[in-house]
Amino acid sequence: MPREVYLETFGCQMNELDSELVGGQLRALGYRFTQNRDQADIVLYNTCSVREHAEQKVWSRLGELVERKKAEPSLVVGVLGCLAERDGTDLMRRMPVVDVMVGPGELDKLPALLDNAVKTRESMLAEGVDPGRGVPKSARLAALQGNTSRRSATLAAAADTLELLDLSRAVSPLDDTQGPQRSAYVRVTRGCNKFCTYCVVPFTRGAEVHRPPEHIIDECKKLADSGVIEITLLGQTVNHYRFEHGAAVTVNGFVQPQKGRSYSGGHRRDPFAGANVTTFADLLRRIHDEVPSILRLRFVTSYPRDFGDDVLEVIRDHPRICRYLHVPAQSGSNRMLAAMNRGYTVEEYTEFLDRARAHLHEPHKGRPCEISGDFIVGFPGETDEDFEATKALVRRARYKNAFIFKYSPRPGTVAFEKLPDDIPDAVKRRRNNELLALQGEISAEQARAYVGLEMPILVEGHSVRERKKQAAAGACGDAPRGISLTVNGASVEPAHGHGSACAIDDEPEPAPPQVPGVDVQLSGRTDTDMIVVFNAPARDVGAMVGTTMRVRILSATALALVGEAVVPNQ
Ligand code: 5AD
Ligand code: SF4
């Protein structure tokens, strides 16, 4: 009998992609997926541990399973991703409900571990042993990297097996509950070498490894052939991508990813660029030119120091590369940036902002550019003066939106070990709210600049308002499902996967006037990542979702732009 899996994803886009990949592997092996946790034989949580809050959500989800597991000892519970890697087998000791743990660097092992866990429990039940009471240690399974991913001898092996996970991607619509996939993530880089002092990612996701460009381009082509029109390239510091071909070796028949020769960023161009190196600029150009049916090529998240002019020029000169850059600043105070080990100053960051806009902000050609940022408030030692400096940077940067987080001390990081978490929570909260309010005003001003522009948007589906209206009227049955990136289960954090404090994305949208009974409100995005709502006749909705069409922007709020269709379906 096919086993039913419930898979819920927390945290970032990288996790959403991981869930999609493991979901594809499990489906190919005959597992079925359900949205209903209570019906599932296997419950999997793909977890995030960037902030304590994200971990707590997982703990409470696991707690909810304790009673059911007592009643149903054959239930298999798995914790995947960063929390598994960070907590290690300690998690199993603290939460006996967990049967399987797999770190983000070992996800290719999940099918084997699940199979093992399911069969062990079945045979124990057949023998009359209650596995809920006495699962032997050997029946609880973990695949974790520990810190091996940073040892050069094991780096190659880790990269090789992980590459297999990405290469295994099933692009056919295996999950017909999700509708046609029009938008997809493609990983270009794994791990991170920056070691910002507050961040767990270099520990949970391991050393930075760049995928071979051939693999990335092939994956983009396959996705495009299956109907995808928007690709978002993913990396923790995506614009740091560089692949050295000369040094490539083959392991098990696959081109082996190499750690790039050190290019410390900050330069205007990669001094080693040439025939043997594929830089990030080269990669963008190649995908744009070699996969023309991708109408939108985006990338997140960028690191401020790694933006050479070569990348900006490629974006400017290639019309299907989106003019949207997500470039976290984290603080506007040089003292805090140094304590965070961010590797740049506020002056260098603002120099980048000016350079990016000089290259890419061309509203007179109908091609504006938008930048969004991340900030951490209440980092150890942050004074009122430091916070004022952050506000000054937010005013200066004119972000489209910003993701603002209260500092959360993470065990194992330098900040956790060395810097006392000395900013009271009330102060963190006040700074968070103040920064959000300031960014809200700026978002509204940025949005107003769009009024009168005519732009193509990618139509994603019913707007939030329309979905609520239809849900209230009990009419969700015929609603278009929109563009979907997740396997199933809610992605708990908002669109960009970067947390709960986004100034725009989780708010309801404004309303253009509708013809009652005829129109519905749809929502789409410009290539600058601005949300646009507009009305369309209900009968045209099916044909519009997942296509690009031109809209004229009529009005704007901080939450969304309001537009009208100019020429449908172009
Ligand atoms: N506390 C608060 N925010 C954090 N981030 C990363 N680590 C922490 C932490 N320990 C934020 C940063 C990063 C985003 C993904 O999460 O702003 O850009
Ligand atoms: Fe974490 Fe810094 Fe790497 Fe981003 S660049 S993933 S914040 S260590």
The poorly predicted ranges are 248-267, 476-507
Can you give the mean pLDDT?
A: 85
Number of helices: 19
List the strand order in the largest sheet.
2-1-3-4-5-6
The largest pleated sheet is described as: 6 strands, parallel
Gross geometry: globular
Identify the CATH architecture of the largest domain.
2-Layer Sandwich
Count of individual domains: 4
Helix content: 25-40%
Bound molecules: 5'-deoxyadenosine, iron/sulfur cluster
Q: What is the number of beta strands?
A: 23
Q: Any idea of the CATH topology of the largest domain?
A: Transcription Regulator spoIIAA
| Rg for CA atoms | 24 Å
Q: Which structural category fits the helices and strands? A: alpha/beta
CATH class of the largest domain: Alpha Beta
End-to-end distance, in Å?
46 Å
> What proportion strand?
15-25%
A few lines on this structure:
The protein is an alpha/beta fold. Helix content is 35%, strand content 19%.
Q: What brief labels describe this structure?
A:
570 residues; alpha/beta; Rossmann fold; Transcription Regulator spoIIAA; 4 domains; six-stranded parallel beta sheet; 19 helices; binds 5'-deoxyadenosine; binds iron/sulfur cluster
Structure description:
With 570 residues, the chain is of the alpha/beta class. The protein has four domains: 4-144, Methylthiotransferase, N-terminal domain (Rossmann fold, 3-Layer(aba) Sandwich); 152-322, Transcription Regulator spoIIAA; 324-449, Transcription Regulator spoIIAA (2-Layer Sandwich), CATH 3.30.750.200; 454-565, no CATH class. The chain is built from 19 helices and 23 strands. The chain has a six-stranded parallel beta sheet with strand order 2-1-3-4-5-6, sandwiched between helices. Strands 19-20-21-23-22 form a five-stranded mixed beta barrel. Helix 12 (309-317) runs parallel beside helix 14. The relative contact order is 0.10. It binds 5'-deoxyadenosine and iron/sulfur cluster. Iron/sulfur cluster binds at residues 192, 194-196, 199, 201-202, 236-237, 303. Iron/sulfur cluster is lined by residues 192, 194-196, 199, 201-202, 236-237, 303.
